[in-house]
Specification:
25% strand; Quinone Oxidoreductase, Chain A, domain 1; six-stranded parallel sheet; seven-stranded mixed sheet; alpha/beta; 313 residues
């Protein structure tokens, strides 16, 4: 079988033909349909991830969709896969039963795989952390990424009266015009003024995947008592947050990580997103690449070039 391998810290994965792995006691074998690649996979492979990495060489990727020998179709995430042990970027891999979530046969494999880590990091900050209410206004910073595009749709599905999508890539911003009420580029002057105009009376929820200057601007466009959910730092790791603004507007700024969400909430949310996607009500375009082309897909993750998914071959 084909498997992607990380052979050294920071190395691009190579492809190797390996024997089919024999499941250890308490494990099950999974036949791969699609494995999602995420920025966290690159962080783990870099050797600098806070939770470490599996012994090298190892198979990367923390999630996938596949089928068990008994015919069950499953989404696989957790159980240390791709973090402390071999991951899912192989045509066949082993997993503990606790990492399995049963899914139906109707879901598209690549989409179902992509609706894991990145999509959860877009949906849950809006619905679970911020608890966006119908009629509220949301600003989504980093809307052109996979998580951000899901956050835009989550806000709309949750009943937001106004959704402002903020990003840098003009083509991807244009693609969001049918989902958001306003799109705002981070490029150009007076971002704060443009966000204030786009948000109208002020945003009640800010989804922040950027930090840095865009967050500084977005805070000026918030309503009294707004909830700011911080999920990433694509625009830089340092932001100047004005004390008077936070106190005057009584803002709540909360850090978010998928790792902090109870497993039952994660599973229920994942299945909800799969159902919505299967019904055509949630969209996440993916780029499918055979495992033999993993180097290209890995580079796509590094450059932010779409949601990358590996398939057998």
């Amino acid at each position: 079988m084909k498997a992607a391998l990380i052979t050294a810290p920071g190395a691009t994965p190579v492809v190797e033909e390996r024997d089919l792995p024999t499941p250890a006691e308490g494990e099950v074998a999974v036949e791969l349909e699609a494995a999602s690649l995420n920025p966290v996979d690159l962080a783990i492979a870099s050797g600098g991830f806070y939770a470490g990495h599996p012994p090298m060489p190892y198979v990367p990727a923390i999630e996938a969709v596949g089928r068990l020998d008994d015919g069950r179709r499953v989404f696989v995430m957790g159980g240390g896969l791709g973090v402390v042990r071999d991951g899912t970027a192989a045509e066949r891999f082993n997993a503990p039963p606790a990492a399995l979530v049963d899914i139906g046969d109707d879901a598209d494999a690549a989409t179902a795989a992509a609706l894991g880590t990145a999509a959860l990091a877009g949906w849950l900050p809006i619905t679970w952390a911020a608890k966006l209410q119908p009629g509220e206004t949301a600003i989504v910073l980093g809307a052109t990424g996979a998580a951000g595009s899901i956050a835009v749709q989550a806000a709309r599905i949750a009943g937001a009266a106004r959704v402002v999508a903020v990003g840098r890539n003009p083509e991807r911003l244009a693609a969001l015009e049918g989902m958001a009420d306003a799109v705002v580029s981070t490029e150009g002057d007076d971002l704060a003024g443009r966000l204030q105009a786009a948000a109208g009376g002020g945003a009640h929820v800010v989804f922040d995947a950027l930090w840095g200057g865009p967050l500084e601007a977005a805070l000026t466009a918030t309503a009294l008592g707004a909830r700011v959910i911080h999920v990433g730092q694509a625009a830089g790791g340092v932001a100047t947050v004005v004390s008077g603004l936070v106190r005057g507007k009584q803002l709540t700024i909360r850090g978010y990580s998928n790792f902090g969400v109870p497993r039952d909430v994660v599973v229920a949310t994942y299945l909800e997103m799969v159902d919505l996607a299967t019904a055509g009500k949630l969209v996440l375009p993916v780029i499918e690449t055979p495992i033999s082309g993993v180097a290209s897909a890995w580079g796509g993750v590094a450059s932010g070039n779409g949601k990358q998914v590996l398939i057998p071959g």
